[in-house]
Amino acid sequence: MTHEVSDSGSSADSDDSGDWRGWREATGAALYGPSGFYRRPEGPAGHFRTSVHASPLFARAVARLLCHVDEALDRPERLDFVDMAAGRGELVTGVLTALPAEVAARTRAYAVELADRPEALDPRIEWLPEPPPGITGLLFANEWLDNVPVEVAEVDPAGVARLVLVRRDGTERPAEPVAGAEADWLTRWWPLPAEPGLRAEIGLPRDTAWASAVASVARGLAVAVDYAHTADARPPFGTLTGFREGRETAPVPDGSCDITAHVALDACALPGARLLTQRAALHALGLTGARPPLALASTDPAAYVRALAGAGEAAELTAPGGLGDFGWLLQPVGIPDPLL
Ligand SMILES: C[S@@+](CC[C@H](N)C(=O)[O-])C[C@H]1O[C@@H](n2cnc3c(N)ncnc32)[C@H](O)[C@@H]1O
Predict the structure, then answer these.
(1) Rounded to two decimals, what is the model's pTM?
(2) Parallel, antiparallel, or unpaired for β 151-155 and 161-166?
(3) Whose CA is nearest to atom 11 of ligand 1?
(4) Which phi and psi (to 5°) does residue 112 adopt?
(5) Rounded distance, CA 12 to CA 246, Å?
(6) Which of 50, 62, 147, 243 to mutate to test the pocket of ligand 1 (most atoms within 8 A of CB)?
């Protein structure tokens, strides 16, 4: 997506130079400031559907993953499940419902979220602004890292990658050349050829955020699930975009819409991590989207209809070109990879 780039500073409304900010700061204020997009009462589900909202099968698959982690940990007395960037706690609620009673009885459930705790949330769920230390179990971050604000770089007519500044109305202008750790990150993870107009999102804050979340796991597994790209196929113009009420919009950092950019998950990976598609991960967790046998339609029509609906939902969660292409970054800590 592109939008107007003003580089002259001479337009009628450019004397408010204090309004220009890097995309990272502008997005941080627009999403998480006092009246930011994610503070709104309707929550993320009011504006877009994640896998969590698409089907309860997703929470069931995550519950199955938690059971695998439980086995790898030799069934500890206290098993932690951390829903990182929990929205309104929909995933952790679904996971608690789906767990076998014996495992649920040993599970401590946490929702980590910047927004306020919803009133009607299951009282067994602890609501925290950051992950608890010493997690023994599973930390699961669905669509968190794409909302960790990042700077944007764009190649200027001379072939130099410059930081992009933005105003509250979404107008952009180029600033100083990218330097220091941000330049190093681009060189390592997203080299920009000297072709004017090429853009990249500088994923450094996401790498740091993910490393810090993983550091809160003492033993177990951390999983980040997101729209992702890897070094062999970076999008030439980046993926910065907005979402409002179910529709993609221009990314305007005024608090009126979500602002998101796909995640360079390969850059986030720490040693020992594995990156796979959601399709492969859900298949490994037993969710295939296979249709029920036709014979069931005559022996138990109601069961057939239920199974058919489930197959449709599983197909959506694993669809090529859709949710199935999401990346799952598996980061085992002190246990073997439970999906191998
Ligand atoms: C796209 S929503 C995903 C919600 C939920 N995980 C799901 O899949 O439906 C992103 C959420 O991340 C939260 N968030 C962003 N940064 C966070 C942070 N550092 N700590 C906790 N929550 C965060 C936002 O408030 C928002 O609710």
Answers:
(1) 0.93
(2) antiparallel
(3) 85
(4) -105, 120
(5) 34
(6) 147
Separation of CA 119 from chain center: 24
User: Counting Cβ atoms within 10 Å, is residue 322 exposed (0-12), middle (13-18) or buried (19+)?
Assistant: middle
Structural contact between residues 81 and 110, judged by C-beta atoms closer than 8 angstroms: yes
14-45 burial, b for 16+ CB within 10 Å, e for fewer? eeeeeebbbbbebbbbbbbeeebbbeeeebbe
Cβ atoms within 10 A of the Cβ of 184, count? 12
Instruction: Give yes or no for a contact between 338 and 65, defined as CB atoms under 8 angstroms apart.
Output: yes
Q: How confident is the model at residue 46 (pLDDT cuts 50, 70, 90)?
A: confident
Contact residues of ligand 1, CB 6 A cut-off: 38, 44, 50, 52, 85-87, 90-91, 112-115, 142-144, 147
Q: State the virtual CA torsion across 24, 129, 247, 281 in degrees, nearest 10.
A: 100
Backbone angles phi, psi at 243, to 5 degrees: -135, 135
% helix, strand, coil for the chain, step of 5: 35, 25, 40
Question: How remote is the CA of residue 143 from the centroid of ligand 1, in Å?
Answer: 7
Q: Dump pLDDT digits (tens) for 87-114.
A: 999 999 999 999 999 999 999 999 999 9
Euclidean distance between CA atoms 155 and 172, whole angstroms: 13
Residue 312 · residue 304 · CB < 8 Å: no
**Nearest-angstrom CA–CA distance, 250 and 242:** 5
Sheet holding 258-260, edge to edge: 247-249, 241-244, 258-260
**Structural domains for the chain:** 37-148+205-288+326-333 (3.40.50.12710)
Q: CB neighbours (10 Å) of residue 337? A: 14
φ and ψ at residue 272, rounded to 5 degrees: 90, -5
